[in-house]
Description:
This protein is an alpha+beta fold. It contains three helices and two strands. The chain has a two-stranded antiparallel ribbon.
Amino acid sequence: xxxxxxxxxxxSPTVAxxxxxxxxxxxxxxxxxxxxxxxxxxxxxxxxxxxxxDHLVRMGRIExxxxxxxxxxxxxxxxxSGSDDGxxxxxADGPSRRRSGPVLVQLTLRRR
Length: 112
């Protein structure tokens, strides 16, 4: 794409040239700390970033490690969604070891 009245290409929001996988890897290596940050750095849509990260994990280029699952050991009173009186803020009857809802995942770029 060129800027009207110019013969040079418009500045691209992408971190690196190449396909989406290379762009996501470059943004990640440059210090992007979240999928939204990768999306902003590359100009790719969030669904495209999600798909690229999933593919890179399957390829072994990025490692995904789950950080937490289930309710906290301290019960509902120590849960971020718990209420001041110690009741569950999530609507559960009490602490559960069963995973539900979003899970926090740490992504690590594997060095070759």
